[in-house]
Amino acid sequence: MTAKTILLLSDGRPGHYRQSEAIVLALSRRMETKIARIELIKPRIVPRRLARYAARWLPPRLVLAWLYGLTTTPKADLIVSAGGNTLAANIALSQLTGTPNVFTGTPRHVGGGKFSLVLTPYKSQASLPNSAYALKPCALDPDAFAAPKRWPAAPFRIAVFIGGPIPSADFQDADWLALGELMRTMARTYDVRFIVITSRRTPDAFYLALDPIVGRKDIVDRFIDHRQAGTGSIAEGYAADAIFATSDSMSMITEGVAARRPVIVLTPAVTKPFRDNEAVDSLAADKRLAVLPVREATPEQVAAKLATLEPMKENHLDRLADIVAAALTRR
């Protein structure tokens, strides 16, 4: 069978191009694939909204040359991209070559009609033209991990994925102290041990707040410190029986759900409305996760949530491949 060439358009942002890579990975479970990649360079002087209007009204060759400096149109069997800065190029290349195209994100000011498929984590947008609801694509393969124990099996391991403060989830010292106390009391109340995993955004305040417990093996089984090489792999977290994730990172939350683990999303006291709240609320409604304010959460509340959550049974990569394949068949 001849390999299908998938043209991946990247804006250089890991949070975007990794979603496209996940689509390629999902499709590779169904067919032989090879990737052609274009790193897009969009002039900063062009506002994103103007670029999107250009994709609607200007000739595609002009869009590619003017916005991205592209003068060639590579051939492919499928175009994939994520992120607003790739949107105009995705549309223009599809129009020029007749190639089906997939976009992950929100096609503001353009609409789904310019794509073969728009993947959205927001159920409110799944009914729009050529759109389908799915987890934000991620490359994590849950089949790589043994099935988790079900609460209240003992011993029980919980991975704690730590992000950092952002405007919509402003974690402060008191939130980190509350998290440390929650872990301490859970370890004392139940046969629970934690794997703590930090990230590039994790602030010094977290390390100071958790310092009294990270060295205690009766509480923290593993401490995977982003600041230090050789402390462990993030994959160890996805092999745990359940996951805590701070609410600032939709990527961590999505990967926890994709790993087929029950996920507890911990929120700070200071929050603001954010678009991804809709995606979190949908997953909560499906019992994939529960949301708890970290300063108010108790071991008993966490235990009750862990007992009622219903992790995914299917492999999200297979479902993603099915959604994309179905859209291409309809084209």
Task: Describe it.
The protein has 331 residues and is an alpha/beta fold. Helices cover 37% and strands 19% of the residues. The strands form two sheets. Strands 2-1-3-4-5-6 form a six-stranded parallel β-sheet, with helices on both faces. It has a six-stranded parallel β-sheet with strand order 9-8-7-10-11-12, sandwiched between helices. The two termini are 21 Å apart. The relative contact order is 0.13.
Helix content: 25-40%
**CA(first)-CA(last) distance:** 21 Å
| The CATH top-level class label of the largest domain | Alpha Beta
- What count of domains describes the coordinates? 2
Care to count the β-strands? 12
Share in β-strands = 15-25%
Order of helices and strands: EHEHHEHEEEEHEHEHEHEHEHH
Give the CA-based shape. Answer: elongated
Question: What is the makeup of the main sheet?
Answer: 6 strands, parallel
As a whole number of angstroms, the C-alpha radius of gyration is: 21 Å
Q: Which CATH architecture of the largest domain is right?
A: 3-Layer(aba) Sandwich
- Uncertain runs are none
Q: What is the overall pLDDT average?
A: 91
**CATH level-4 homologous superfamily of the largest domain:** Glycogen Phosphorylase B
Structural class: alpha/beta
